[in-house]
Every structure is written in C-alpha cells, then in structure tokens.
Amino acid sequence: MYCYVIFGESVDKHTRKYLYKCTKQMVAGEVVLVPSKNAAKVAMIHSTFVGIPEEISIDPGKIKSVISKSDKKVEADVARSFLLALIDEYKDADIARKELCAIVKCFLAFSEIKLNGNSQWTQIINVQLPEVCLCNTNESGESDEKELRFWKELKDIEYKLRYGHSFWKRPKSRIGYINEDPIEYTDEYIQIELELERLIRSEIGEGGYRGFCHKYWLTKKNILKDRFNIEWKSPADLNPQIWFD
Length: 245
Description:
Oligomer: single chain
Shape: globular
C-alpha cells in the first residue's frame, strides 16, 4: 500500500504531495511520522493507493516507508498548516469538495489538537469545520448553490486561519485605510472567484515581483468585464492617494 503525504502549506500556496510506502492500513486525514534527513517528521496522509500511481516512474525500493501513526497531540501551528494546505488544493481545483471534507473529518476524528485556550481556534475546530463538512452531505439545493455555500464558509475559515479574523468582519482599521470594491462580497463575485483566480494565473503567472499588483489588477479587471460581465474597481482606482507597488 502507498500513500501521498503533505507536510503543510507550501510557500507558494500550491500544495505539494510526497509518496511513501504504508506498512499498515492507513486512511486520508491521519497524522503520521515519516523519515526525514535528521529526525522523524510529522505529516498528514493525503490519499492512499494499492499500487504506485501510474504517473510516477520510480524504483519501489527507493520509496521510504511511513514510520507509524502519531500518538501525540497536534500542535496548533501544524494543524493550521495542514488545513491551509488542503484549502489551497481546493482553490487550485486539485481536490474536490467531497474529498476535502472526507480528509478533514478523519483529521478531526483521529487527532487531538492543542487549542491552547484560543477561542477562535476552538470555534473553527469544534464548530465551523464539522458544520461545513456536515453541510456537504446533508444540505439540499442545486450543485452550484452547494458549492457557493461551501466556498463562502471555507473562505471564512481560511481568513481566520491565515489572518486571524473573519472574511466578513475585517478589522475596521484596515477597511478604513484601503477602500475595496464591495462587489467582492457579493454572491455574484464569490461564485466565480476561484475560476477567476485560475484564469488570471494562467494568463500572467504567479508574479511575486515589484509592480506585479498593477498587472494583476488590470488582468483581473479585463477578465471580469469580458468573461463575466462584472465591472470591478481595483484598489488603485479606489485609493488614488495611495502609491501601490
């Protein structure tokens, strides 16, 4: 039996998976220990296979084996990184809603996470994540509506994990400093947001260099107008007093 594991969120926010051999039956979402250069490293089982995936050409003898399941509490930062890695995969369309929910359910069921008295963490782990995964199976409605409701909840969780606040209740100081187009908070925009970001990335790449924000905003504005018939104003449009680079 073989499995892909993840070590958490990648720097570029595109989740990387690593192939290991499983000596025991394991399921996606379990936290395990795998061999590393100097010591065992904590990882999460992402997916399992009976044989080596066809797209991988490797000598089976060179594939390292999972050491064991982890019996320790999962540190909050480690859990946060695992969850953000799964959200990144969903945003990249590398994992479907059903698969993501199955992994998260198993992770929550088999792992004890150190919440350290953090009320926001407690809310995410004990309430929001179970509810969003439960909605995936129990809620009624059309597929597009389900996907929209799911992404709105997941986006809120992502903001809390990444920035420490809700997507819907951003700090007043930030809102007062940089004006944002309110259309970004509408269902019309959120419903096409993930497709939009993939289209932008396929057209201009990942960026990361000085001045890229202006290229990104121009591309975003053009795609929204031409493909989705949505008029959007960039931060530069709405904040002429601020110099963006």
